[in-house]
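Researcher: Let's try something more involved. This one mixes different molecule types, so please make sure each is placed in the same coordinate frame as the others.
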Amino acid sequence: MNYPSRLIEEAVAEISRLPGIGKKTALRLALHLLKRDEEQTRSLSDALLNMRTKTTYCSRCHNIADDTLCNICSNNKRDQATICVVVDTRDVLAIESTNQYRGLYHVLGGIISPLEGIGPSDLEIDSLMSRIEKKEGDEAVREVILALSPTMEGDTTAFYLQKRLKALGVKISTIARGIPIGGDLEYADEITLGRSIVSRVAYD
Amino acid sequence: MNYPSRLIEEAVAEISRLPGIGKKTALRLALHLLKRDEEQTRSLSDALLNMRTKTTYCSRCHNIADDTLCNICSNNKRDQATICVVVDTRDVLAIESTNQYRGLYHVLGGIISPLEGIGPSDLEIDSLMSRIEKKEGDEAVREVILALSPTMEGDTTAFYLQKRLKALGVKISTIARGIPIGGDLEYADEITLGRSIVSRVAYD
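Model: All components are placed in one shared frame. Result:
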């Protein structure tokens, strides 16, 4: 394609390197920015660069952070006795958006996958163990919640973690599996429906 | 939502100001950039800012340009006697991507729309007339192709332009309307199909 401007061509090329964004969408976004105030592009450009160059990883939970400790670990109001184990920052954000959890997190940075050559030593598992053993801060960790996807890899990782956590004498739990709220029984897959019957919950 | 990092929160907020990009997609893009080399974010950030701050409008065709003249107007190999009138840069790029047109363009910057209060004086129509009257360069303009969308506004604008261009004694044409290539007759709307019969083309 003959772009009327080399600068647009370069911007479109850069935007379309992002996942799920093709040339047409990239062009639409570029033309949108051209129509708006220069200030919008400037703040977008600055925000991206600041995010990439100034963020680091939390030394405790390995989540993305602005400082040595992330906003969650450094928040004293959070329940320091509960740790929720997740795969990545996206999972932390998904759980945070529910407003149902007030404990801390531990970000593994991946999932055990023999097919992709990812073993326990490639993940932040040893640091999780030492967090619990060390009993950092005043409170000891009482419960570890495994919030891993119910896939082959997730189950493998959960099984491995359970085995190692049991030795530390900490309570271990996993997020509930079942029919999604608002989901229709008719359209639920057999495995989920079957498990939801087996793990039925008694009315109080 | 409780973001673990203020910098990510700001980046997500800025990305989600783009059209068609919600918070979830913005977060996915931000996390993608965090996983990649710093260099990728840096070039994206620079490309956006350069595009926004360094591009200008072509003084002849009003397309986006890096310099006084856009790449198309300053290309001597293009047919200087034909001008294709379009609404915006997107249309220029759409036509350029066909590789079927070797003439110049004229970007109106909008379309006549009484409902939105856009009249002929808000568009680059006078500059189109003077481009043809002045016979810029060595060659005079012989043909003006109207490439406007077949909507109410597009037809109004085309009708207005035809009236004014006729006075200049230049050949006026419009892009062909009909059944799209690969389109199924069965699914064509009646107006398009009707027009495609009326404007049928004889085999040579």
